[in-house]
Amino acid sequence: MTTLTKEAGVPAPAGDGPLLSVRDLHVSFKTEDGVVRAVDGLSFDLERGRTLGIVGESGSGKSVTNLTVLGLHNPMFTTIEGEILLDGQELTTARESEMEKLRGNKVAMIFQDPLTALSPYYTVGRQIAEPYMKHTGASKKEAWNRAVEMLGKVGIPNPKARAGEYPHQFSGGMRQRAMIAMALVCDPDLLIADEPTTALDVTVQAQILDLLKDLQQEFGSGIIFITHDLGVIADMADDIMVMYAGSAVERGSVDSVLHAPEHPYTWGLLNSMPRLDSDPSIALTPIPGSPPSLLNPPSGCRFHPRCPFQDRVEGNRCVTERPLLGAGESACHLTPAQKRDIFVDEIKPRLG
Amino acid sequence: MTKDLLLPAPRDEGADAGGEPLLEVSGLTKHFPVKGGFPIRRTIGAVQAVDGIDLSVRVGESFGLVGESGCGKSTTGRLITRLMEPTAGTISYRGKDISRASRRELAPIRSEIQMIFQDPYSSLNPRQTVGKIISGPMEINGIEPPGGREKRVRELLEIVGLNPEHFNRFPHEFSGGQRQRIGVARALALEPKLIVADEPVSALDVSIQAQVVNLLQKVQRELGIAFLFIAHDLAIVRHFSQRVAVMYLGKIIEVGDRDSIYTRPRHPYTHALLSAVPEVSVAGEQAPARERIRLAGDVPSPIDPPSGCRFRTRCWKAQDKCATEEPPLVQLSGNRAGHLTACHFPEEPTTEAREEDIILDPALAALEEDTSKD
Hints:
The structure holds two protein chains of two kinds.
Chain A: E1 20-31, E2 34-46, E3 51-55, H1 62-69, E4 78-86, E5 89-90, H2 96-102, E6 107-110, H3 114-117, H4 124-136, H5 140-153, H6 159-162, H7 172-184, E7 190-194, H8 202-219, E8 222-227, H9 230-236, E9 239-244, E10 247-253, H10 254-259, H11 264-271, H12 317-320, H13 336-347
Helix pairs in contact in A: 4-5, 4-7, 5-7, 7-8
Chain B: E1 21-36, E2 42-58, E3 62-66, H1 73-80, E4 88-93, E5 96-97, H2 103-110, E6 113-116, H3 130-140, H4 149-159, H5 176-188, E7 194-198, H6 206-223, E8 226-231, H7 234-240, E9 243-248, E10 251-257, H8 258-263, H9 268-276, E11 293-294, H10 320-324, E12 330-331, E13 340-341, E14 358-359, H11 362-373
Parallel strand pairs in B: 3-8, 3-9, 6-7, 7-8, 11-14
Antiparallel strand pairs in B: 1-2, 1-4, 4-5, 9-10, 10-13, 12-13
Helix pairs in contact in B: 3-4, 3-5, 4-5, 5-6
InterPro entries (chain A): AAA+_ATPase (IPR003593), ABC_Ni/Peptide_Import (IPR050388), ABC_transporter-like_ATP-bd (IPR003439), ABC_transporter-like_CS (IPR017871), Oligopep_ABC_C (IPR013563), P-loop_NTPase (IPR027417)
Domain ABC transporter (chain A): 22-270
Protein name (chain A): ABC transporter ATP-binding protein
């Protein structure tokens, strides 16, 4: 396979700041039932070439955050407050024409379901070539060759012939590879992968995850990887952010969050998930209750109605005061010593 | 119908070598015809969804069936519950062949084999109240439990952890996890002996999955109901099942008790499957490294499966023999009793890392060669 070299015009990194910096982001939607506060005070940074894994259940705001970064929400019904800085450029106030220049070029996205994300009407090659033509001004022929090259890169056998085929002629794993090729065709600085392997089988998932990791080394993109599967995060990410009901509850490196988690919700996730090496005779410990409605979120700590440890915090603070997330910590009122003791004494033994 | 619910107490795992078989399946086959041609449409092929599988589920046992999508695990579940007619093979329940039984003959058995479906949204009738949904099976089978059906429904709601007061609510008033509990209550309504659970938790959020898994486990142990647990999640199947069968393209390629399958797998596909599961290692550095196997491509089409061993097209050990001769499902030397493998060239019984990773995906291999050169 030929080597991939980015054509002239690589933008010089603006300063040494993080690639993406989200500050106090609030996203709310107006619905018939009221205002849904889908993201509520979220801040995080992503460095170049790093992978940030965002884990959370459905409705935790992980996908909404990333659609906001791409500017894909309908402004009619969405209120966005806060800052999103990509290489120093503010995205929340950017005009649509500016966003258009970014999408598919500097920021690209891989969606969960490749069959609905790819157009059934155009050939796979054409769909990959299109953003390349738009953003680099390449001719049709150049773009087609580039598409074929990218398809080869992501492991599609006989890429020359397959580029002329339609998405329905591809299998699930192949379609997701084509999506990756499309996302990487312009060598993006930031790649957002929203549950890219959830629809795939486990052996195919393993191929795609490894492929993404290897391609990241080559392309040097920063990746935001959204998933509900802690195992996938452990495999893929450098840093983890755990989201619950619209905000981050815990953040840190993969090692610290998975081996010394501090937030009761993270403990709950770890305890409720069987692993291949856990002791099957130990019953799982589910998180009681179900995720809250974002129309009318609980007061104080959003997790308090489901938290088994709230009685260990003095003065009912869990109900009255919302805990804040400092750098590399967890948003919980328990003291650091309590968190350490609870994890070591009560949570870890149950992990088997 | 037999009303006795005096079933043997739940046995400890490991001690399951004996036990009376409740369900025995042999040579079970289901081919779906593929029609085509113009102007007269005729059968031009068949999707060989399930192609001659043998398995047995013992009284009170939980039997796991794992495999990737399209391997025929759900079809197997539907054949066993007789929601579909098998093309060939026999299904015998308590020694009685039910594979060709008529509706009338099946009626008493239907109540003993129940099913829990994957999607709690489409498996409950939105126009019926919870009470009606759960009492439906009793009504159809003309069962009048002591104290009336309503009392029984309330009991069932309590067993599955729902508020009995919610008797008159509709499914849309419940969350996904609660709906799945309603599905479990419905399956329990007729005091079944066998429940076929087809991906019962895969539509649920992680934190809710554990609630439903624990509920099913409670039901299985306390009421002594045998389970055929169908899922693609290897960790959940391991947690739930005493014995596990691995399916690939309509065939069972390996079956055995849980520990044997998960720690001493012999079939290359089982190795690949286990090595592909992304894992959170809680032990950190101390845990032994797992082997890394990356297959190439996807599962072939069941319309035209490979000859001989069906896994050979993606197998790193395949030789000429694999293409011509289908490997029988037998006990290999060194395996525990009951651990059967269908492979001509089995792997070593370990899941620990090998000297060299097996990377069959050409793109992955090329990329990794590049990075290792740098």
